[in-house]
Amino acid sequence: MTVRVVVAGAVYDQGRLLAARRSAPPELAGRWELPGGKLEPGESPQQALVRELREELGVETEPGERIPGEWPLKPGLVLQVWTARVVSGEPRPLQDHDELRWLTRHELDTVDWLDQDRPAVAEAGRRLPDG
Ligand code: CDP
Q1: What ligand 1 atom has the least distance to the C-alpha of 34?
Q2: Per-residue pLDDT at 57
Q3: Phi, psi (rounded to 5 degrees) for 23
Q4: pTM for the whole thing?
Q5: Which of 6, 16, 31, 98 has its CA 20 to 30 A from that of 110?
Q6: In sequence order, what E strands does the chain have?
Q7: Mean per-residue pLDDT for 92-120?
């Protein structure tokens, strides 16, 4: 079976991490995730991330480093996470999400993250300032 990659962004701005609340499908609605989506054929993970964040949030971003690890989502789908920073625009929930929040390190546990995102969120949180 070909394994497809979902790439998600640990998007940082001013010492905070972006969390996005899913509005669909019903079994995921209300849970929070790092925004992203599936790689299309021929795309690099970085290209897919920039495209997905543009489509979902209306912002231009610059990918940084890969957060080590790979997390199974369902058969044939794995999650990879890259850091990214916003280079232009203000994120808005254009599709897939109905709310966005910027979280400081101390606020990371205040939203109900999707289980599969939790290890990456913990790792992303270690890259946030203590303040
Ligand atoms: O937009 P696209 O169809 O490419 O992707 P998506 O629907 O946003 O995500 C594909 C799958 O990855 C869905 O099942 C999401 O629940 C899952 N996903 C996830 O578990 N964690 C993320 N941070 C992003 C996506």
Answers
A1: 23
A2: 98
A3: -105, -10
A4: 0.95
A5: 6
A6: 4-13, 16-22, 32-33, 36-38, 60-74, 77-88, 97-103
A7: 97
Q: Is 28 in the pocket of ligand 1 (CB under 6 A)?
A: yes
Cα three-residue angle 33-5-79, rounded to 5 degrees: 35
Atom of ligand 1 nearest to the CA of 36: 24
Distance from residue 123's CA to the centre of ligand 1 (Å)? 19
Provide the token pair at 32.
């929070």
Decide whether any atom of ligand 1 lies within 6 Å of the 5 Cβ: no
pLDDT per residue as tens digits for the range 59-72: 999 999 999 999 99
The residue to which tokens 């299309």 are assigned? 40
Q: In whole angstroms, give the CA distance from residue 70 to residue 52.
A: 19
Whether the upstream peptide bond of residue 25 has omega within 30° of 0, thus cis, is: yes
The gap from C-alpha 19 to its chain's centroid, in whole angstroms, comes to: 7
User: CA 98, CA 93: separation in Å to the nearest integer?
Assistant: 6
